[in-house]
Amino acid sequence: MTVLMVSGTGTEIGKTVVTSAIAAAAVAAGRSVAVLKPAQTGVGPQEPGDAAEAVRLAGPSVTAVELARYPEPLAPDTAARRSGLATLAPAQIAEAAQRLSLDHDLVLVEGAGGLLVRFDEAGNTLADAARLLGAPTLIVAPAGLGTLNSTTLTAEALRARDLTPLGVVVGSWPQSPDLAARCNLADLPKSSGLPLLGAVPEGSGNLASDRFRTAAPSWLAPTLSGTWSAESFLSTWSPQPFTEPSPTGTNPSPAGV
């Protein structure tokens, strides 16, 4: 796996932090890494974007490349149209990723928003770039209520296009997960048909870079150069089976009595 697409079920769910963690884990494993952000939206000319954030967190050895930047925080196609700037075609994304793959062991291509966000007037998306590259796609998903539907839809959209969904990483695992989040750990693989490949703790993007790099492998499965175990994580966080509370003032009778 030289090129990996990193998509999500939506926006603001931790794609950049997950991308940074994968980069950090790969660097720790001795691999050379590039992060490609095809379309950066909602950032001014001199502000650091997502690719620069990956370098800050994962380390200066990571190569960061950004292809297009649009000032408003909108879908790339809409942001380009409103700003009068050129849109980005899948072939441009694929060409940039292939060029980076000549000098790097791993190229991470971080999408904008969800998988099917439009990049240009023709309706092309990150999925079209993935097809040109023949690259698998990692799905970054939120932990809580609603994630089963959006993650499964994203996986189905990839399969419908004859693309390879690699697995799912929870982009921001809560410090105090509610019942829905804990149940979703077991339900996500069943619903999406994909393995759970990691869970990044919420707030990880605020860590000092050295602490982030040290911890990153422990958040990711071996497929992503990490040491994280889905089985161990599930055993820690899976809720106990539901039991009907006893009526007030009574004791439950043994079965069959």
Helix-strand blueprint:
Layout (H helix, E strand, L loop, with lengths): L2 E6 L6 H14 L4 E9 L8 H9 L4 E8 L5 H8 L6 H12 L4 E5 L15 H8 L3 E5 L5 H14 L4 E9 L5 H14 L3 E6 L7 H7 L14 H8 L20
Parallel strand pairs: 1-4, 1-5, 2-3, 2-4, 5-6, 6-7
Helix pairs in contact: 1-2, 4-5, 6-7
Structure description:
The chain is an alpha/beta fold. Helices cover 37% and strands 19% of the residues. It has helices at 15-28, 50-58, 76-83, 90-101, 126-133, 147-160, 179-192, 209-215, 230-237; strands spanning 3-8, 33-41, 63-70, 106-110, 137-141, 165-173, 196-201. The chain has a 7-stranded parallel beta sheet with strand order 3-2-4-1-5-6-7, with helices on both faces. It starts with a strand and ends in a 20-residue tail after the last helix. Mean pLDDT is 94; it is low at 252-257.
In short:
This protein is an alpha/beta fold. It has helices at 15-28, 50-58, 76-83, 90-101, 126-133, 147-160, 179-192, 209-215, 230-237; strands at residues 3-8, 33-41, 63-70, 106-110, 137-141, 165-173, 196-201.
Strand order in the sheet with the most strands: 3-2-4-1-5-6-7
What percent strand?
15-25%
Instruction: Give unreliable regions as ranges.
Output: 252-257
Distance between the termini: 60 Å
Helix content: 25-40%
- Large-scale geometry: globular
Largest sheet: 7 strands, parallel
Number of helices: 9
What integer is the average pLDDT? 94
- Structure classification: alpha/beta
The helix/strand order is: EHEHEHHEHEHEHEHH
Tell me the quaternary state: single chain
Radius of gyration: 20 Å
Strand element count: 7
